[in-house]
Amino acid sequence: MADQDRIALFIDGANLYATAKSLGFDVDYKRLLKEFQNRGKLIRAYYYTALVEDQEYSSIRPLVDWLDYNGYSVVTKPTKEFIDSLGRRKVKGNMDIELAVDAMEMADHLDQIVLFSGDGDFRSLVEALQRKGVRVSVVSTNATQPAMVADELRRQADEFIDIIHLAAKIGRDSGERSERAHRGPDRRAPPPVEQFDPELADDSLE
């Protein structure tokens, strides 16, 4: 990879959260940004997530606010509630369209796109970006059972990066939590998102 490759990150927030959780680590978004700044000229880092608007406190809001002030372009939209066929209340927060539109609009200004998602729905997006001459790397994992990445997406990508190999570089230091408990919250560090509602992870691989 050339030092001056123009790179953009497109992070499916719910999908990345679910993937990291399945491997037992928390993403440190400051370290993640630094890792890809070292790989080329990082033009933009997009982070996509849905927010529950009617909650008095949203557990993901502190992370969204931190990302917004620390080098990420955060794209959000309100979740939608619906009742499924069994009468259960469900929350849907799919950001696929927003991510795809932004990626296509940015494509002419980039050499490489790094997509943090294993969602097979993105296969056609990857193919369209490749037709525009953009190399696409997909970051997910097939180290879990079942794999978090759809096979068709992994095959379509120019490069598949198993996030398990990035964990040492972008993971939160395991000693950081206990240290933070003693010295109080560090406003310079991104907050953990362990309370994120898994129902928002609308990340079906089909």
What would CATH call the homologous superfamily? 5'-nuclease
Helix content: 25-40%
Strand content: 15-25%
Q: Which structural class fits the helix and strand makeup? A: alpha/beta
List the total number of helices: 8
The beta-strand count equals: 8
Characterize the main sheet.
Answer: 6 strands, parallel
Could you tell me how far the N terminus lies from the C terminus, measured between alpha carbons in angstroms? Answer: 31 Å
Low-confidence parts lasting 5 or more residues at pLDDT below 50? 176-186, 193-206
Which strand order do you get reading across the main beta sheet? Answer: 3-2-1-6-7-8
Total of domains? 1
CATH domain class name: Alpha Beta
| Average residue-wise pLDDT | 83
CATH architecture: 3-Layer(aba) Sandwich
Radius of gyration: 17 Å
Structure description:
The protein has a six-stranded parallel β-sheet with strand order 3-2-1-6-7-8, with helices on both faces. Strands 4-5 form a two-stranded antiparallel sheet. The chain has a single domain (6-200), classed as 3-Layer(aba) Sandwich (Rossmann fold). It is built from eight helices and eight strands; from the N terminus they run E-H-H-E-H-E-E-E-H-E-H-E-H-E-H-H. The protein has 206 residues and is an alpha/beta fold. Strand 7, helix 6 and strand 8 form a beta-alpha-beta unit. Helix content is 33%, strand content 23%. Mean pLDDT is 83; it is low at 176-186 and 193-206.
Short précis:
The protein has 206 residues and is α/β, with parallel strands linked by helices. The chain has helices spanning 13-23, 29-37, 61-69, 96-106, 123-131, 151-156, 167-170, 176-183, and strands spanning 6-12, 41-51, 73-78, 80-83, 89-92, 112-116, 135-140, 159-162.
